[in-house]
Amino acid sequence: MSLSETDLRAAIAREMPGVRADLENLVRIPGIAFEGFDHTQVERSATAVAELLRGCGLETEIVRHGGQPAVIGRKVAPAGAPTVLLYAHHDVQPTGDVALWTSDPFEPVERDGRLYGRGAADDKAGVMAHVAALRAFGDRLPVGVVVFVEGEEEYGSDSLNDIIEAHTEKLRSDVIVIADSGNWDIGQPALTTSLRGIVNLFAEVRVLKNAVHSGMFGGPIPDALMTLARLLTTLHDEDGDVAVDGLVGREGASVDYPEDRFREEGGVVEGVKLLGHGTITDRIWTKPAISVLGIDAPRTFEAANALQPAAKAKISVRLAPGDDPTSAYAAVRAHLEKFVPWGAQVEVTLEAGGSPCVIDATGPAYDAARAAFASAWDGTAPVDMGVGGSIPFIATFQELFPDAAILVTGVEDPYSGAHGPDESLHLGEFERVCLAEALLLKNVAEALTN
Ligand code: BES
Ligand code: MN
Question: Which residues form a coiled coil (predicted)?
């Protein structure tokens, strides 16, 4: 006999304390895949995830291809039943300045119904949502599962294609659940149906062979920081729209995101204007964005009276669905080479790129998911939403398994603060996410079993 919705509700309620405790243990592991961080911590977090999957009765292995370790756990499908791939990532973003956190990023603490810590939402709660659903079914899982937990998503998933290529047959599935996005609001679930792509690049300008006295040479000779600043301002027009030719962008996102809510959620300082044209959702979902993430330059307190010879910026370009990272990089590079002022040299190099994606969210798996979400949120149906962030490998899965339905879910809400200080998880919503995933597996089994 298969478990009923009532059984699954009770099972999730029963499992939540253990799920919470295991989530806290994962948050205590500072597994950051970025260069220069202690990668033994990423190993520890892979081992911890493998242990959790083994505990769910999955056959588990840790795999790698030159990069950080991913975990694959599998349980074969009952006869005639579909196989569902459950994706999340166990690596996390660096903390940034720890002084900006209210409490230790790697010591989870609850405040006002939220669990604070780096990775508490993105994406260790995604890992635990999969574990929660598996625990709720125990040995009565009605589908086959492949759990795939990546170890370097936040660092650009460099070795992911090789891992996927080496393990394609193990990953083959009918439905793919990617628990690495979020919901529209607290109390309002969503399915994510479009994501932007990304091109991160460096632009380094050079004007001098060496630093020279700013009094003896300042005036006729441009310094590298002024030169770089001028160059960066050419990336947008006066209204703040992206001014690079050759990037894809369109208007027409259908969800209303009131400007005051957007300002509030983003923490925009009073008086600051928003850039560009179109609705807010057009601007974050279906248009490109260009931001400057960092500049290598002398720090002000130690800057000498000298003209700087060179300066380097890290520039992040978010790509609208329909764009392509190769052509977008070429477009931005050509722009920077064309507009560099004062005859300065500019060297443009690519850090990493990833494709945008759009999902045609129609068919039985999507119906199964929508029904599961509506039940888990006590009758509130999910909205389809885009997100401005990127999960580049979704496009890889789309190419590899064109017939698989891809459900992009997740635990984040507008106040999760992913990538920033005081990242947190709404614990009430987290329980709904866990329940929704269990119901989703049940509904998918019912809809797709032959
Ligand atoms: N979970 C995010 C993706 C995301 C962002 C989903 C915003 C929903 C809303 C993911 O972990 C992430 O941050 N991805 C990186 C990708 C990059 C490293 C290639 C991103 O968007 O910066
Ligand atoms: Mn993530």
Answer: none
- Does the active-site annotation cover 153? yes
Asked if residue 180 has its Cβ within 6 Å of ligand 1, the reply is yes
202 CA → ligand 2 middle, Å: 23
Alpha carbon of 389 to ligand 1 centroid (Å): 5
Closest-approaching ligand to the CA atom of 123: 2
Mean pLDDT for all residues in the chain: 97
pLDDT tens for each residue of 223-253: 999 999 999 999 999 999 999 999 999 887 7
As a whole number of angstroms, the distance between CA 412 and CA 388 comes to 13
Confirm or reject: Cβ of 122 under 6 Å from ligand 1: yes
Last residue of a domain, one of 328, 354, 380: 354
Whether ligand 1 lies within 6 angstroms of the CB of 247 is answered as: no
> What is the pLDDT, as a whole number, of residue 206?
98
Segments forming the whole domain that contains residue 209: 197-249+288-354
Q: Which of 310, 335, 354 is the last residue of a domain?
A: 354
CB atoms inside a 10 Å sphere around CB 369: 27
The answer to the question of residue 71 being in a domain is yes
Q: Are residues 329 and 419 in the same domain?
A: no
Measured CA to CA, the distance from residue 134 to residue 147 in angstroms comes to: 10
Catalytic residue among 91, 122, 123, 180: 91
356 touches ligand 1 (CB under 6 Å): no
Residue with tokens 């990775």: 119
* Inside any domain, residue 257: no
Task: Report in angstroms the alpha-carbon separations of 372 from 7, 45, 365, 375.
Answer: 14, 30, 11, 5
Predicted confidence at residue 251, as pLDDT, reads 87
d(CA 17, CA 232): 50
Q: Which atom of ligand 1 is nearest to the CA of 182?
A: 8
Residue of 122, 153, 154, 437 marked active site: 153
120 token code pair: 């508490």
Tell me the pLDDT tens digit for each residue of 32-67: 999 999 999 999 999 999 999 999 999 999 999 999
Q: Residue 48 and residue 116: Cα distance in Å, rounded?
A: 20
* Structural tokens at position 417: 């603060």
Substitution site in 153, 184, 199, 357 for ligand 1 pocket (most atoms within 8 Å of beta carbon): 153
Whether residue 282 lies in the annotated active site: no
